[in-house]
Amino acid sequence: MADTATGTAFRTCPLCEAACGLELTTRDDRIVAARGDREHVFSHGFICPKGATFGELAADPDRLRRPLVRRGDRHVEAGWDEAFQAVEQGLRPILERHGPHAVALYLGNPNVHTMAGGLYLAPLLRTLGSRNIFSASTVDQMPKHVSCGYLFGNPLTIPVPDLDRTDLLLVLGANPWESNGSLATAADFPGRLKAIQARGGRFVVVDPRRTRTAEHADEHLFIRPGTDAYLLFGIVHTLYAEGLVDLGGLDAHVTGVDQVRELARAFPPERVSAVCAVPAERIRGLARELAAAPTAAVYGRIGTCTVEFGTLTSWLVDVVNVLTGNLDRPGGVMFPLAPHVRPRAGAGGKGFRVGRWHSRVRGLPEVKGELPVATLADEIDTPGAEQVRAFVTVAGNPVLSTPNSERLDRALDGLDFMVSVDPYLNETTRHADVILPPGDPARKGHYDFSFLGLAVRNFAAYSPPALAPDPAGLDECDILARLTLIAAGAGAAADPAVLHDQLLGLALQRAEAVTGTPAAELRALVRGDHPAERLLDVALRTGAYGDGFGARPGGLSLDRLLDNPHGVDLGPLQPRLPGVLQTPSGRVELYAAPIAADVERLRVALDRDHHDLVLVGRRHLRSNNSWMHNVPALVKGRDRCTLQVHPADAARLALVDGGAAQVTSRAGTLSARVEVTDRVMPGVVSLPHGWGHDRPGTRMTVAGAHPGVNSNVLTDELAIDQLSGNSVLNGIPVQVKAEA
Ligand code: SF4
What we know:
The protein is an alpha/beta fold. Helix content is about 30%, strand content about 15%. The protein has a seven-stranded mixed sheet, with helices on one face. A seven-stranded mixed sheet has the order 26-21-25-22-24-23-27. The longest helix is centred in the last third of the chain and has 20 residues, at about 495-515.
């Protein structure tokens, strides 16, 4: 731990998926400066404006440091024991009378950036046993999980573009110049894109907006929102029609090539061009360039997931990668190997399926253990057996981040009980009866359980806490452990150490199976001052590069990472086929019956008329969803929450730059300030997401002074990608008119 009087601490930035190394200056129990860690093995000194505010975010005066308990219509500070007693009194009667499904749980995006989220949410979910589990995944990335589940047998087996070696990168619906990347962990993503050009390669961006990424690209193609599946099928059609399919030596590891040829017949470039607005000859050109490039990678992100055919689009991204011989080879798309993961011995597995249960009201299938958040309000406000009566949120703000947020906002008022694990009294937690605030990020250890498995280069890093724990605070692992013990019926006063020990025991049993050494002997060898550190130590030592508890001297362990505060480089990505595959055949299965059925739906939709005007979202470098708008440095400057409108549409609709517009969809209406710009294509308007900080009863001073408008007032909870349940947040039909 760093000297709390003054000193330097190194840690991984937990604020987005890029996993940059930070160099923090600490003084008097505060972070007084944050800069890029120049010696970091992965980020080499890169930092973005969000990372530079790490100290401000950690010390935000609005951050809750003690629990809040509702008293009448006010939230008042309470002691930890009192707060957990209130949780027990609120939750247990509902569990006992109505069963586990009457308690819903929502996990927000920041959970993938904490060790507590990586280690302690699974036990909470298992113990609770509710079918009503929801998360940000179904407003963000579930289509990618589903497509990878069908293709590779595991929804977490996601190939990433090998940015540092590729010759041609096709980027669809992603704006890494602002987001720094997603489902592809790449510190200094913009620098890696520039490096492609510097070594003679190219990158092409397909997006309905001319984003900053598009401005730096070798080529930008506008595309009508939600139609990337057509573009990609046009590419696939061309690959077959022109004899360009070449699996690059993977023939023995791939099935379904002939079936995909049949599926693609309905999508010749001329036909899809009319829908997606990309010229047919350019579609053919992209196919030829991807096939001819020494190496190439197709990378699709948020704009390809949050659409009606999100899973098909995500599937097609990797179909093109396979058919052009770019799966699992340097410069193509590859499978990272995270240090805490132990590679499987051989190919094959049970494969992937959805629908182990269905939502009560709309009958939507479970995917990856959760239900679509688009139906959360239905489950709360529709009476009947197993109606949701209690709600647990962990680091989530679904009132701002999920579709038809006004309806969800109203539904939360009808709950019998709600508890939130969250550092803020925000638009969602204002409904909670109890708020349990985790400590600030500077006081936690950090290891990226999620993102090291998505990194474009294999590496490992662990950051111990930069500051001493708040003596009056409660560790986030302890908070989740105490909630788990309450759900288990052990009571509000149960010692979280009981669960910590159980989890370590289970980890050691697995380690015994790997090492052959009795768990009791291994327990004596485990290092770490904190329960999460001890679990990490076991995972690292039995992981892909681990020291095997002494069997492989020099291998990874917690101690090795503590000795290397700038991280340990584990080299470029390596081919992992076929061992990484968990499909029943042990091969990449290009064809799956649910995919084929949805292709038929896509074919039928070729004949649809397109809407006059559709809404898309947008991302800004100084924002990450809704959770960084209370930091002055990140919201200062001109209002970014504008409705971007193309000049032709502005003229047609009598909208003026700086004027007000009323935007209406099936779900709702809002007013926004107009920004006339040719950065959006005609027929498209754009609002950023994560704003709308104007609700009463919140305690976020800075955000409240820069409220913006909530784009999810307009998004429609009835519009989902059928295969994944992901919400459609891009391509929302809207009407826009000038306001006086
Ligand atoms: S790019 Fe992401 S990880 Fe890097 S400094 Fe910015 S917020 Fe942090």
